[in-house]
Amino acid sequence: MTDDHIVFIVDDDIRLREALTELLEAHGMRATAYGSANEYMQAEKPDLPASLVLDVELPDINGLDLQKQFADGDHPPIIFITGHGDIPSSVRAIKDGAVDFLTKPFSESDLIEAVRVGLAQDRRGRSERAGMKRLRDRHSTLTPREREVLPLVVSGLLNKQAAAELGISEVTLQLHRRNVMQKMAADSLADLVRMAEKLQIQVTHSRRIEGEE
Amino acid sequence: MATISVTCTDEKAALVVLRNRERELSYLVDMVPSHIWRLTPAGEPIFFNRRMIEFLGMDAADFDKPGTSRLESIAEIAVHPDDAKQFNDVLSGCLVSGENFAMRYRLRRSDGVYRWMSSRAEPVRDENGRISQWYGLCHDIEDQMCADELMRRNERQLRQLIDAVPALIWSTTPDGRPTYLNKRYTEVTGATLDDLMGPDGSPAPLAVAHPEDRPAAAGLRARAFETGGPYAVRYRQLRRDGSYHWTDTRALPLRNDAGAILQWYGVSVDIDDLVKAQEALQQSEQRLQQLVETLPAMIYCATPDGEPIYRSQQLREFLGINLEDLGEPGASGLGSTLEAVIHPDDLTAVKQRYSHSLATGEPYAQRHRLRRFDGQYRWVETRAATMRNSDDQIVQWNGICLDIEDEVRAQEKLRSAQESLARASQAASLAELSASIAHEVNQPLAAVVANSHACYRWLSIEPANLQRAKTTVERIIRDANSAAEVVSRIRALFKQTVEPRMTTTISSVIAEARNLMTDEASRRRMRLEIDVDGELPPVAFDRVQVQQVLINLIRNGMDAMETVTGDRVVGLRARRVKDVIETEISDFGQGVTSPDKIFDPFFTTKRNGMGMGLAICRSIVESHGGRLWAQNRPQGATFIFTLPIEAKTK
Fold first, then answer.
1. pLDDT higher than 50, residue B431
2. How, if at all, do strands B244-255 and B101-108 pair?
């Protein structure tokens, strides 16, 4: 059993909680079970990549409604399990981002596969979120002038054009550009362009259009 | 006459004349219907006339007695003992003074009867002025005295009567000046004649009337005195203690032969109690009337033969017709009255019932449609009963009529709702039941599958984890059995097969149920409180079924307390009551709104419930010869089921 992930189980039937915990542990996964949505929400949970195995028919809330509540914040990918699944519910769940929608009794492989997909999704998500955070942190170290220089540079304007745009000398612009590259830890212009895309920095100019004119 | 010169013959003749005259005089004295007597100046009687002698039965000389004067003797013998002393005193006084004697006294007749006499005597004096004789006259006034006495007595009696009569009696002059008030008048009102005179001396006979009643009374009085007609008035009259009592006053004038009014005579009678009683009666009648008129029901009265005589306002408004509109009572006939207001379809039944009641005096009760003023027929319930007098004869029929239209409509709606519900539930039951069964079986089955895979994994890894594999297998067995039990339970429900019954104690089943439910209870932040009598005898019952009943009832109790903020406790109590073991499951929820219906199949108060739980529970308990029922407590509900103890011998 490894400590780099966790699987949460929410089901009101203790027999299923026991069985699912057992099965996941037999597959070398770490699992924690809760009897109700409320119990799950209130619990202290480790900050690890996770999957949530969620029963649709819970005593306090319908699992699908719980999923809606999660939609706002970060949450582990959800694998729904249900006693009597119907197509509209499963479609709704998948559309809202569920990993899978399993009808009891479900096969071991379906469950384990879904949990693994969920964990991978969460890992990816978490690393993406971490990368974004790094980018934002770096971006926040830029001076106001450097933040003006960045969109002009990633637009592909020549130094001369960008300097003219800002009304500064080409030398000064080159200095700002070097600082931006350093602070954003960009290996190349292409790298910086990708970062700007992720940060959703508005590209205000296009070199090609300007060049053609 | 003494101057006539006489001759011998003349003398003779004169003598004869004189004798004749003397005889005549003597005869006169004797025959006058009075007693005449003469006394010496010293008062010695020396002559009684014949009438007196005959009256007394004695002549003057007959009264001579040694040692006393004749006068004293007469006073002693002939004058009434009560008058004798005064007689002596007065007469002796007159003899001394020479004044005339006058006195009334009773004198004894010869037969011993005393009769009143009026006696007078005057002295005759000689030329020297000395008294020579006393001449007395005495006549019988007995009859006059009796008449006077009678009159006096009559008058006294009349006065006593006037004073004793429990009425205030008074009289006035023709112009209204009070002249007499009887004693009671003053005793009762405290007013004297003076009080009925104004300060300016004008009569104020209404000074005793209540100020508010005075103007009206004065008007009546003035009119009566003006016209000489009878005076009759009611007013509140002053009492000695300052209170006022209702009084009835009447007066009539007394007229002389010429028709002129001499006097007014009046009487005032205290009618306060009567007036108060009348007022109270009126008030009570008014209240009753108001009660009848304002009751939210239609009320009517009818004669013993059914003719309507009274209808309350509610009924009048409902029908929109008054009794008067029906014309002369009886003319319209009861039949046509009923025909006018009762729905044609109900008419025959109503007439039948009505005439039956009228004929037998039995209470009348009937539901029928009654025509409202706007022509709409509304369902009413009419009930009537007889009112009888002390001879048990029917005096009147009193009836009440309630508008039950809304009730009837609601019942109809309820009935149709129930029918459609029954149809819907019949149609839906199989699908719902199968879905429910699938869920019940799926849960343990899903656990079995997951545990099996886990077990396989534990055995597959190197080295195999036998401990955990064993745990999972135990769970597989448990859950598989659980699924199998559900299946057999359902089979039992539908096939009504009799399961083999084990003799066991209810306490062990309750303990199992608690173990199964404790986890769920704490998760739902609830508690289970168990109170089982340790001495309970073992009973033969289907363990699984009874456990199912227990779990179902416990879970129901928990569901009932889902929204409760206070103490969330499900209480389990088992004890022996006579020949049964009674198990109570109580909660602190909202209680049960329909304790009768909750056991009906497909009756549910839960959003996702199927309404089968309690129906199954009841059929299980009843198949064991017990009973299951629900009752509400001040807070929450209690479900109780019994299991008979003798069942073990069967």
1. no
2. unpaired
